[in-house]
Amino acid sequence: MENQRTLADGLRLGVRALVHAVVGGAALIAIATVASVLGPLLALDLYTPPVAAWWTVFTAVAVQGVPFLLLGTVVSAAIGAFVPERVFSRLLPRNQALAVPVAGAAGVVLPGCECASVPVAGSLMRRGVAPAAALAFLLSAPAINPVVLVATSIAFPGQPEMVLARLVASLTAAVVMGWLWARFGKERWLRLPGKGRAPVPGLRGFASGLQHDFLHAGGFLVLGAAAAATFDIAVPRAVLDVFTGSAWLSVLLLAVLAVVLCVCSEADAFVAASLSGFSPTARLAFMVVGPMVDLKLIALQTGTFGRAFAVRFASATWVVAVASSVLVGWWLL
Fold first, then answer.
1. Half-sphere exposure (CA, 13 Å, Cβ side) for 301?
2. Mind spelling out the 3-state secondary structure of 140-187?
3. What is the mean pLDDT of residues 43-70?
4. Mean pLDDT of the 183-207 span
5. In whole angstroms, what is the distance from residue 76 CA to residue 166 CA?
6. Could you give the CA distance from residue 268 to residue 287 in angstroms, rounded to a whole number?
7. Is the dihedral of CA 277, 282, 284, 288 positive or negative?
8. What is the largest CA-CA distance in the chain?
9. In this structure, are residues 147 and 138 in contact, taking their beta carbons and an 8 Å threshold?
10. Interatomic CA distance for residues 176 and 179, integer angstroms
């Protein structure tokens, strides 16, 4: 009887948590949609078209991210509640140098964007996975999953070398960053919520983890979207055109734009394909850097792992991703 009562309570908690998460995600999308309608109207009334543009970009980034953020928090909560720690110790090599490429290659199994990878990586660390391996997974999952690679092949028809270049450059950057963290990373830089606290198993733990992760990460997603929208309207397009004449400057420019535009990894290939004035290597850099370093991802990392981690990790990742893009672009494109 006691077991039946416990199971019933757990089911109620699980259903309640899923309802809250779905309703919360729908509410965020509804608010962003209403804002996108009212914002331009208000901007027109006040004769400020830039405000209308700001609302449009903000809404696009936020609405793109919410569904994948919800997916990531569901996966994160499920890992914390239902997957025993011994599973990861069996799947990943004990040698951290070998665990990093295995975890990076495992990024192909999560069909989501960078919003989903942050909470999942945090959950993996809490379950005993080495931070270097979890971070390699965090970087590779949004960049090499099947949805992204198929989208890239559609955006660049008849150019399989672009799909291969994206796969190789992204996986290389993720693995290198994992190895760099294993060698130079310090534990005091990494602030992991819930670290040291015994995970609650079962549906009760799933409900608690889902509610905490979704509400916690959602606020930082909104902050990142606001930052991207502000940059989009603050920098004149004429300034960007100056860089298209130089092969090196064009790579750096698109690598910076990937950070501030915050295009979802499932859609960034179509944006890159539209940048026909830039070299193939520059467009590759845009697709490699974006899923690994953008403003909303930096905001999510700050909220999950702390500012000390986010500043160091994002800076190093940007450099490694650009270098990987240039080398692979020179080799394959």
1. 26
2. HHHHHCHHHHHHHHHHCCCCHHHHHHHHHHHHHHHHHHHHHHHHHCCH
3. 67
4. 70
5. 26
6. 6
7. negative
8. 75
9. no
10. 5
Give the pLDDT confidence score for residue 321 in this predicted structure. 96
DSSP-derived secondary structure for 83-113 = S-HHHHHHHS-SSHHHHHHHHHHGGGG----
Of 239 and 188, more confident: 188
Angle (CA) 294 227 218, round 5°: 75
Mean per-residue pLDDT, 201-210: 69
Please tell me the distance from the alpha carbon of residue 136 to that of residue 99, in angstroms, as a whole number.
Answer: 9
Give the model's pLDDT for residue 34. 55
* Residues 218, 90 contacting (CB under 8 angstroms): no
φ and ψ at residue 110, rounded to 5 degrees = -105, 105
pLDDT in tens, 276-325: 778 899 999 999 998 899 888 898 888 889 899 999 999 999 999 999 99
Q: If residue 59 lies in a helix (H) or strand (E), which one and from where to where? A: helix 49-82
Contact call for residues 239 and 46 (beta carbons, < 8 A):
no
* Residue 185 structure tokens: 């990373």
